[in-house]
């Protein structure tokens, strides 16, 4: 940059995931041609194999040095660092920069890098300040690692759930409802498959499904602490001089259900599940397709239990989550336990027990996990479960959060064996998290080619000519009667055109019917991959599809 654009001023340039960026102040916008030229010069400087030298300077001397160089932003950054330890600088050729380091010993070590794009960024992230130009780059130890990364990005772009959402006619978003999703028939069918699957999982694992109200009085949110701490994230409304909030979470509703009745230790653990619709007022700039929305549904669940039951519940929950992720086609899970922070409620004995339970649950599951000491919530430790998708990207979806606080705040109690009244522990848990986001992940994981049990449309029947239109409609009808999701495309179009069009829709099966099939009562079966399975008797195919299509 400084060799090609000597008047550009350097500001900050940190390492980020998979690369780096650097913010510059310059009189005109950088163009794609500029990026190409800069990248070429970077390669030349790498070729020169200049040694990189580290040097320490007292702060004030470092400020003076950068002022003399005309690098006023750098000087400003350093001037703001408290005086004390000396400042470390790195130099190569004629260029010196402020950096904590470490750096490579010489520029010749830099083999694989690429500049990606340029974007605007405010000086020090403050919109009142000057707009700088941020150049993003990626850098790798080896060329083939970089190639793999660039290929992954290309593939991610092709699988972008917003693009596929339109192409497959699943959903849309529009300005009248920022961050809220319009589900189209096919998208809503996909949703229903997921919800019905999860509903069965709840039922088979001792959860009772409940449903709480959408709008709750301010006084309740004051008791939970949300009105004070979470207010700008809540949508509020008023009626008859009372303030309400549209629920940002389902937990208080479940406690109010729990509280309606005298609970004994014999009732515990008590598990509630809800496909809970929540709203959170995210800043409009942070919204992103289905991945970050303002209105979402969680596969939420709360377990009321004693401290001694935490271990059993976490163990069962972890096994359940593993099965669910596997069933959705995710083989790799990453586990993280966040433990007690400085500021917390509850006594140490309770924390000891809860943390021990989380660790023991993962240990007995035989999985590897990492610990994040001090990163738990003030009200309890938690496990975070992340899944890895087909492109190797990691998405945190599941949680198991121990809560020593909210049940007490809302007066939840149970009668213990010794007849005293105790406060239950509450476990907040979600397996897939927000269904909207999970569907976004599924769309990208499968590139829109969903497994048969999830596919919104499992097969399409295509007639070759008008002569088989009635038969094609009857085939679709027969398959639908068996509970399958099948459509017929009877348009008077060339069969090759119809096949091509439905291939783009990524349906698992295409069933072509001509005179031969009509006479034989059969269908010619093509798979999504373009494989021709030949003619099959309709009843035989119906049986096969039904077996294949049942949810795991
Ligand atoms: Zn909760």
Explain how this protein is built.
- It is globular and about 90 Å long.
- The chain has 17 helices and 28 strands.
- Helix 10 (310-327) runs parallel beside helix 11 (348-364).
- The strands form seven sheets. Strands 11-15-16-23-20-19-17-18 form an eight-stranded mixed β-sheet.
- With 552 residues, it is of the alpha+beta class.
- Helix content is 35%, strand content 28%.
- The mean pLDDT is 94.
- A hairpin with an 8-residue loop joins strand 7 (112-122) and strand 8.
- It binds zinc ion.
Secondary-structure map:
Layout: E1 9-10, E2 15-16, E3 19-25, H1 32-48, E4 53-57, H2 59-68, H3 72-79, E5 87-92, E6 95-98, E7 112-122, E8 131-140, H4 143-159, H5 161-167, E9 171-172, E10 182-183, H6 185-204, E11 208-209, E12 215-217, H7 218-224, H8 226-229, E13 236-239, E14 242-246, H9 251-259, E15 270-279, E16 295-305, H10 310-327, E17 333-338, H11 348-364, E18 369-372, E19 382-388, E20 394-403, H12 406-409, E21 414-415, E22 421-422, E23 425-434, H13 435-446, E24 459-463, H14 469-481, E25 486-489, H15 495-504, E26 509-513, H16 515-520, E27 522-527, E28 532-537, H17 538-549
Parallel strand pairs: 11-15, 17-18, 24-25, 24-26
Antiparallel strand pairs: 1-3, 2-3, 3-8, 4-5, 5-6, 7-8, 9-10, 12-14, 13-14, 15-16, 16-23, 17-19, 19-20, 20-23, 21-22, 26-27, 27-28
Helix pairs in contact: 2-3, 5-13, 10-11
Bound molecules: zinc ion.
Zinc ion is lined by residues 249, 251, 302, 428.
């Amino acid at each position: 940059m400084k060799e090609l654009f000597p008047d550009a001023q350097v500001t900050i340039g940190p390492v980020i995931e998979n690369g780096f960026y650097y913010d510059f102040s310059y009189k005109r916008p950088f163009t794609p041609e500029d990026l190409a030229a800069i990248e070429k010069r970077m390669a030349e400087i790498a070729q020169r194999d200049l040694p990189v030298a580290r040097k320490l300077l007292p702060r004030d001397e470092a400020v003076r040095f950068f002022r003399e160089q005309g690098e006023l932003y750098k000087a400003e950054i350093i001037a703001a660092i408290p005086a004390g330890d000396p400042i470390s600088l790195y130099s190569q050729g004629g260029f010196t920069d402020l950096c904590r380091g470490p750096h490579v010993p010489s520029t010749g070590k830099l083999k694989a890098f690429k500049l990606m794009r340029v974007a605007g960024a405010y000086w020090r992230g403050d919109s009142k300040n000057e707009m700088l130009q941020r150049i993003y780059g990626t850098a790798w130890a080896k060329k083939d690692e970089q190639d793999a990364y660039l290929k992954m990005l290309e593939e991610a772009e092709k699988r972008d759930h917003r693009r596929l959402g339109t192409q497959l006619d699943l959903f849309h978003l529009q300005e009248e409802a920022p961050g809220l999703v319009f589900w189209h028939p096919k998208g809503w069918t996909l949703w229903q498959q997921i919800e019905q699957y999860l509903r069965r999982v709840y039922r088979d694992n001792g959860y009772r499904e409940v449903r709480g109200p959408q709008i709750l009085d301010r006084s309740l949110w004051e008791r939970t602490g949300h009105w004070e701490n979470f207010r700008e994230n809540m949508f509020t409304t008023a009626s008859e001089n009372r303030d309400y909030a549209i629920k940002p979470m389902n937990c208080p509703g479940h406690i109010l259900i729990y509280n309606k009745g005298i609970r004994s230790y014999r009732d515990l653990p008590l598990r509630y599940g809800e496909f809970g619709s929540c709203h959170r007022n995210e800043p409009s700039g942070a919204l992103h397709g289905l991945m970050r929305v303002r209105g979402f549904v969680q596969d939420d669940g709360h377990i009321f239990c004693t401290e001694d039951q935490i271990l059993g519940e976490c163990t069962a929950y972890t096994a359940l989550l593993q099965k669910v992720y596997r069933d959705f086609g995710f083989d790799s899970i990453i586990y993280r336990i966040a433990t007690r922070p400085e500021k917390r409620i509850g006594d140490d004995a309770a924390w000891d027990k809860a943390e021990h339970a989380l660790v023991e649950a993962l240990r007995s599951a035989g999985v590897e996990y990492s610990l994040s000491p001090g990163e738990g919530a003030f009200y309890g430790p938690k496990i975070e479960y992340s899944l890895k998708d087909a492109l190797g990207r990691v998405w945190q979806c599941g949680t198991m959060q121990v809560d020593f606080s909210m049940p007490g705040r809302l007066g939840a109690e149970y009668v213990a064996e010794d007849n005293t009244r105790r406060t239950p522990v509450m476990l907040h848990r979600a397996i897939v998290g927000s269904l909207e986001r999970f569907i976004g992940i599924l769309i990208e994981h499968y590139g829109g080619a969903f497994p048969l049990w999830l596919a919104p449309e499992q097969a399409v029947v295509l007639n070759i000519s008008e002569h088989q239109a009635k038969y094609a409609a009857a085939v679709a009808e027969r398959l639908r009667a068996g509970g399958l999701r099948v459509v017929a495309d009877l348009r008077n179009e060339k069969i090759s055109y119809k096949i091509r069009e439905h291939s783009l829709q990524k349906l698992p099966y295409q069933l072509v019917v001509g005179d031969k099939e009509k006479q034989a009562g059969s269908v010619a079966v093509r798979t999504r991959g373009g494989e021709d399975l030949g003619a099959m008797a309709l009843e035989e195919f119906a049986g096969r599809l039904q077996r294949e299509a049942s949810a795991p």
